[in-house]
From TrEMBL:
Keywords on record: Bacterial flagellum, Cell projection, Cilium, Coiled coil, Flagellum, Periplasm
Domain Flagellar hook-associated protein 2 C-terminal intervals: 359-623
Descriptive protein name: Flagellar hook-associated protein 2
Organism: Leptospira perdikensis
Physiological role: Required for morphogenesis and for the elongation of the flagellar filament by facilitating polymerization of the flagellin monomers at the tip of growing filament. Forms a capping structure, which prevents flagellin subunits (transported through the central channel of the flagellum) from leaking out without polymerization at the distal end.
Keyword Coiled coil attached: yes
Record's subunit section: Homopentamer.
Major localization listed first in the record, in broad terms: other
UniProt record similarity statement: Belongs to the FliD family.
């Protein structure tokens, strides 16, 4: 203590200043802990950014290795703008096709006759048909507005209605089909005369009868159907047998039996009548001609009384029926009495009074082949892998173009390269080391006003990255570089094995070596577009491939990157999470030390003041004694 107090007392320095100086010297550990906390908090921010950047690269890599990655998307267009638009899948074949639109699909539009605007129509019901659908409208009674509201609420999926006011006393009701196409034309059944009173249809007529055509099956020309499932079909003794009662089909057999070619009308069905016992469900089918080829439809049909009803019109309307497919999965034979094609009458029993526009089908020619469809939109069953919309009739043939759309794939790869470069650049910055930077060994004297334990530390950190020497980040940088420059197995013909094959590199030949060493990726856009146009599947394989054909992506740039990044971003035990947790624990520990030391400083300052008070009091007493002795000695000398 005297080493600090005596100079001040001897020079007359204020005791409070001396105490403050001693307290500041005792406070130095707090500055060290606060500096450590500043460093730890800065590291937490850096690690947070590392997590953001690694997560971003993870997301972009997953997009590349996804089965839906759009490397091979194709677009559809026409040589004449505005004729056709659409999309093509990977299955679509690139190329040009001759296309001609001769007629657009249109809606069925009807108009009534003028009637009294204030007409009151009694309650009742009527039915609206469109294609295979029908809706019965229950009308509570009222005027034209109430009638249109009833149609909207109960048959809005088939027709839309409106009222046109001719003059102050008369109005006309119009009805338009929701769907386009000839088959979707509107038909009406009006037993209560409601639509007739509304001026839309004429007299309601009695419904017609079913048309029945007995089909003659030529069992001598029958062919075995699915022999692997119906195992006895190929046995000669198990063939179909024709008798006066009908046709016997034996157990565990199935056959496709030809008939005279017969047109299948809309809503037509095949009725198969059985004699005797038969299973509750029997697999039956039909063969029909569609667009120059024979198609088959085979499905289980439930028995109704002694008949099986196969809805042929649902699958082959307006097609030619060529064969009947019979099967017997039971353990006993089945006797088929007859096979009949039944065609119900048209559902409409009340004819519209005025037709403004007939429902028309779309008529197109592709490579000279004429095709019809009910709609102009989302036509996906004409060309494999292509869905297109037709917008207008062509005056002359145009070219339908199907080509690879490289824009999406190119954008996806660019986003991935940007994410890679951002992570690489940031990682190198925070781990950089200034080779010429040295920490000064010079120490400020304890009594210097500019003494600061953190200054040399931060001066040095300004010359190097805050995570300089951090092995986890250095390993990440090395792994990223290795992944980007590695070779990968090419699983497809003319595949790509390195990123440079598709125009991604760390620099062109002859580039600055230091920049190449940085490891940042560059894209040769012309090369990338070329390979995406010519071999998009090869590009996708470079990022994710299945060399073992086990339906699991195991190789590729994207797959390896995901494996590298996974340990960094795991929620509970990831590298970043663990580092941040340790830093936060360090900050909490230092805060506790700071709080405890500040409590110590309060006690320390109080003790110093008490000691200096005792010293000052002692000095004062000694001074008084000295003065007293000096005065008495002076007096004694004068008396002599």
């Amino acid at each position: 203590m005297p080493a600090y107090t005596m100079p001040g007392l001897m020079t007359g320095q204020n005791t409070n200043d001396i105490v403050k100086k001693l307290v500041e010297l005792e406070r130095r550990p707090i500055k060290r802990w606060e500096t450590e906390n500043e460093y730890s908090k800065a590291q937490v921010q850096i690690w947070g950014e590392v997590k953001n950047l690694t997560t971003n690269l993870q997301t972009k890599s997953r997009a590349l290795v996804s089965f839906t990655a759009p490397f091979a998307t194709k677009s559809v267009s026409s040589s004449e703008e505005g004729v056709i638009t659409g999309e093509a899948s990977r299955a679509a074949k690139s190329g040009n096709r001759a296309l001609e639109i001769t007629e657009m699909a249109s809606k069925h539009q009807l108009s009534g006759v003028a009637i009294d605007t204030d007409i009151r129509i009694p309650e009742g019901s009527f039915t609206i048909y469109s294609g295979k659908s029908k809706e019965t409208v229950t009308f509570p009674g009222g005027g034209l507005t109430e009638l249109t509201n009833s149609i909207k609420n109960m048959a809005g999926g088939l027709a839309e209605t409106s009222i046109i006011k001719i003059d102050k006393d008369s109005s006309i009701l119009t009805v338009t089909s929701i769907k386009t196409g000839k088959k979707n034309e509107l038909q009406f059944s009006d037993p209560n005369g409601i639509l007739k009173l509304a001026g839309l249809v004429g007299e309601n007529k009695a419904g017609g009868e079913d048309t029945k055509q007995l089909l003659s099956l030529d069992i001598l020309k029958s062919k075995v159907w699915e022999p692997t499932k119906f195992k006895k079909s190929e046995t000669e003794t198990e063939k179909l047998v024709q008798t006066e009662e009908g046709i016997t089909i034996k157990a565990d057999t199935a056959f496709s039996v030809p008939i005279a070619v017969t047109e299948i009308k809309e809503r037509a069905f095949v009725e198969i009548e059985i004699i005797g016992e038969a299973p509750a469900v029997m697999e039956l089918g039909i063969g029909f001609e569609k667009e120059g080829s024979v198609r088959n439809k085979f499905l289980p049909i439930s028995k109704t009384e002694s008949k099986y009803i196969f809805p042929a019109g649902d699958y082959a309307s307006d097609k030619n029926l060529t064969t009947i497919i019979l099967s017997n999965a039971a353990t006993t034979s089945i006797l088929i009495k007859s096979v009949t094609l039944v065609t119900p009458p048209a559902p409409g029993t009340a004819e519209p009074l005025k037709v403004l526009q007939e429902g028309k089908d779309l008529k197109i020619k592709i490579d000279g082949v004429e095709i019809t469809r009910e709609t102009n939109d989302a036509i996906a069953d004409v060309l494999e892998g292509i869905s297109f919309n037709v917008h207008k009739v062509t005056e002359k043939p145009v070219t339908l173009k199907i080509h690879v759309d490289h824009a999406k794939g190119s954008a996806l790869i660019k986003e991935w390269v940007d994410a890679y470069n951002e992570l690489m650049k940031f990682s190198k910055e925070v781990t950089s080391v200034e080779k010429n930077g040295k920490i000064s060994d010079k120490k400020e004297s304890d009594d210097s006003k500019s003494a600061d334990i953190s200054r040399d530390f931060w001066d040095n950190k300004s010359k190097s990255g805050i995570l300089a020497g951090e092995n986890a980040i250095l390993r990440l940088i090395a792994s990223l570089k290795t992944t980007a420059n590695s070779y990968y197995p090419a699983t497809k013909e003319n595949g790509f094995r390195v990123l440079t094959d598709i125009g991604i590199s760390t620099g062109a030949v002859g580039s600055n070596w230091e920049k190449i060493q940085d490891g940042l990726l560059q894209i040769d856009q012309e090369r990338l577009i070329a390979v995406l146009s010519e071999n998009p599947d090869g590009v996708r394989d470079l990022f994710a491939s299945d060399p073992n054909n086990d339906a699991k992506m195991e190789e590729g740039v994207g797959i390896r990157l995901l494996e590298i990044l996974k340990p960094y971003n795991q929620y509970a035990s990831g590298i970043v999470t663990s580092k941040v947790k340790l830093l936060e624990e360090s900050v909490a520990g230092n805060n506790k030390k700071i709080k405890e030391h500040e409590s110590h400083l309060i006690s320390f300052e109080a003790k110093l003041k008490q000691r200096f008070l005792y010293m000052e009091q002692g000095v004062g007493k000694n001074k008084s004694v000295g003065n007293y002795l000096q005065n008495n000695m002076f007096r004694g000398n004068g008396g002599e």
